[in-house]
Amino acid sequence: MGVDRRAGADTLRMSSAPVHLRCAGFGKRFGDVTAVDRVDLEVTRGAFVVLLGASGCGKTTLLRMIAGLVEPDTGSLTLDGMDLTRVPAAARNFGFVFQAYALFPTKTVADNIAFPLDIRGTGADERRARVSELAELTQIGDLLRRFPHELSGGQQQRVALARALAARPSLLLLDEPLSALDARIRLRLRKELHDLVRRVGVTAIYVTHDQEEALELADRIVVMDRGRIVQDDTPEGVYLRPASRHVASFVGRATLAGGIVGASGSVRLAHGDELTGLRHDLSPGRACAVAIRPEFVGLRSPAGAPYAATIVRRMFMGPHMRVLLDGPFGLALEAELDLKRWAALGLDVGDRVGVDIASQDLVVIADPTT
Amino acid sequence: MRRGAGAWLLVAFVAAGLGLFIAAPILAVLVASFETPRRLERNELVTLTATMLEHVQEGDRERRLSGWWQRARPNERIDTRRTALELAGVSVTARADDRYDVQARAVDAAMDRLAPERRAEIEARLPLVNAALHKRVLIADGLDHAVRASDLAAFRLGQSTTMGIGNYARILKDERLRVAALNALALATTSATLVTALAFALAYAIQRARVPGAQAIRTVALLPLVSPPVLVAFALLLLFGRQGLVTFGLLDQTLGLVDANSFNIYGFGGIVAAQVIGLLPPAYVVIDNALARQDGALEEAAVSGGASFADVLRHVTLPMAAPALARAFIIAFVLSMTDFGNPEVVGQGYPVLAGEIYDMIIGTREFPLAAAACLSLLGPGLALYLLAERIFDRRRYDPGQRVAAATGHVVPAGIRHALLALGISTAAIVTILFLVVVASAFTVYWGVDHRFTLAHFLGVRADLQDQTFAQSGFGTRYLGLSSVWTSLQVAALAAPIGGFVALLTVYTLDRLRPPGRSALGFVALLPAVFPGIIFGIGYLHVFNAPLGLSALALTGSLAILVLNILFGNLFVGILAGRGVLQKTAAGIEDAAATLGASEWQCFRHVVLPLMRQAFLLGALFIFIDAMTTLSSVIFLVSGEHMLASVLIFSQATGVEYGSAAAKSTTILAVVLATVAVAFLVERRLNRMLHQ
User: Fold this and answer.
1) Contacts of A95 in chain B (CB under 8 A)
2) The predicted structure's pLDDT at residue A323
3) Which of B304, B311, B312, B411 to mutate to test the interface with A (most CBs of A within 10 A)?
4) Does domain A253-366 correspond to CATH entry 2.40.50.100?
5) Which residues in B425-440 are b (16+ Cβ under 10 Å) and which e?
6) Is the pTM of this model over 0.95?
7) Is the confidence metric ipTM above 0.90 for this complex?
């Protein structure tokens, strides 16, 4: 299935906690399209799991199946050992935060937050207390009497979060909750969301296509592609040890070079060059891909450098300069240098430059086709 | 944008068209409604008669006056002489309510006392006074094209007009009108409530419960949109009338359970049934549109918050649909209030105000009173509209961008089945009603002789029971399909012209942006709000003798029918065109301009192709309305230019069922075929252009 679980320190910690939610063989087809292909997923209590993938990879469908908003064709869902597969969404007591907020336009902010309590017949006093507690938690205390259309996007999403948490759900499900917001507000809300969910201590499953968001928020990232889970790991694990070319290029920036593992553990690239000092446990003769991330590429004066390249373009990124290179190995590599270092080199577009590659950091990925 | 001479010409053309053929008739009705009648003094009456007589040729005038005087009955003679004396300031000892022989003696005595010259002077005026008192109706009948209809009506009644609210007061005071108005209110409230509920249930079944066969149910429920006038009411009569298949044929004749003369659909229930089915399409479209645009995530948010089906309905679906429900109710309410077709056909014994207006115009010609009654019909609807505007803050009910269908909100199986049953029964009822009309078109005499015949289509009397009557030729003029041909002519003229005028109007208002465009835009959309009955009598009023010139009269012509239908439905093409223009970036024309296109080239190559669909929709709507409308053209048809829809109405009200059914069937076939052709052409063009 291409799932690669490496036993790092973090995964050990998580697996020691009891499994809270378990999807087994979850699958869903829409007509001819397999949206989710018999996925197995386990989530421990209190974890913040991010489902990451490009649009159409099945992550939202998986989330909606967990919520009960989409009925699975195959598989089962259990929560603390209780089978929830056929339990309707309304009876699961999960909180769901929608991408476009989905606040009730006809209700005030307070009534929106109180809705799940209202439905459960909670007494007026308790309801009021809970609403003000949540309003304080999400910092919207002064907006309670307003209507959703009178709020900004960020404020609306805070209300949506408060509403989802109102009935103390056993699971919080978030479907790209920040993607409709401006970049600046997105960053701020991301941090607040992180702190809030940890403070409340609720188990959360968060869907996004934004790898930066995933890396910042998650205890665990589940990368999906074409309806399957292709990697299930800590953020560090996903970034440093991507399980496939797809993951390597999707999470972080990387240039991929195909090659074959040599007898001494070196990798002969398609272009002919041989990289040595790589860390991997692939057997000789195995086809593989080497992911070269910008931070592994160093630039220096051409004299005495192991590799050489030509500077094709430079992009000013604020704190650093991103440099596009032609070569080595016939690859289009990227390097990132802080501005002082770049100034010290005194180079510009068209110049030859020396290249260092920290080979022990490079990621070697087994090519699944062989 | 700089506007050239061509552009200004276009602006002038559009402004003149909208002003003359939309604003003027509606304004005329508004003004006329305040023309309160005052009984003319006798001297005023004589002066007015003299003025009216000036329209009669000179020799002819003298001959008629003296003829009337010579043939005057004794009581008229006494009346005339006494009046002439009194107007001349001679007192007569008898009063007008004394016995005639007493009056006669007193008048003779007064005449005798006068000097001979004075007496001759008074006697010379007798023919004119006689005409003023007793022959006004005869005089007026010859002046139809020379004098404004309202002035003629006032002359007939011996009244003059002052501006005031007297007509409105009369509707409240007059027992008959008051009852009719209250009946209309009760009817409209009942029909609108039922139709809104039914439309919501159907829209919910189709949009949310996704019942099987949703598309078929929707299509059939929308069928009354393209049906000939009063078809539903007519079909109800064929089934449940005094000679109805069910009431007479089955329950009375076969089973002997009831007497169809007393047990039938006539009355309040019949009108409600006809209106609910007839008004279903507009109400349905409004609600369906609202439900379709509702973001499914709202219902899912409620579900994941723990809401049951009933909770979702109460907290999300219904509140969000509330403005649409109100809109549907108001539309149905106004249409019911202004509907006279259904009440006239199945409403025997249940008079409504719209029917009274129809009688006023066709019968007594009390135009100002009819105008006031028309506008009173709009009052409650307008009040409801303003109320709804106050209650529903647009932004709060804005469904926003529709994101997803609510797959997570599952309608319980029981409710789904109930909705499916409702959808199927509605579709079945509509289908049966239409089929019954079609069947009766091929039937010799519905309810009596159910043999097959084509006579109703061929225009020969099919009533074989009564050969002598059949051979008399009485009333055969309007049998057969010649009137359908007239309707088709009007439709074929009005549709393409109207579609094009709508395009020009949209382009002029929204792109040339002349000063006063918002006022012009408002005028262009007025017919969407004002019911056909007002638009019809407005045309009758304004175009009978515009500016007092009979040479300009349009009444009785084919042109007035074309113009009335064209401008009455112009708003459809305008709204569609405006929608297209708003969706396409204004920049597209700027782009064409920067690429060197002139104003005309821009219109020709950029705007026109974009507006193709809007043109087709606008033209199609006008075509359908020309074939099926009743309420406004019924006041404008003439013997020469008789529309099928008007004949269907009168023949269904009478008992010419076969003939009415044959016309209905033909119209239905023509309209459905046209819609199908338009649909195919559009799809073809679309494919050609997007390949």
Assistant:
1) 304-305
2) 93
3) B304
4) yes
5) ebbebbeebbebbbbb
6) no
7) no
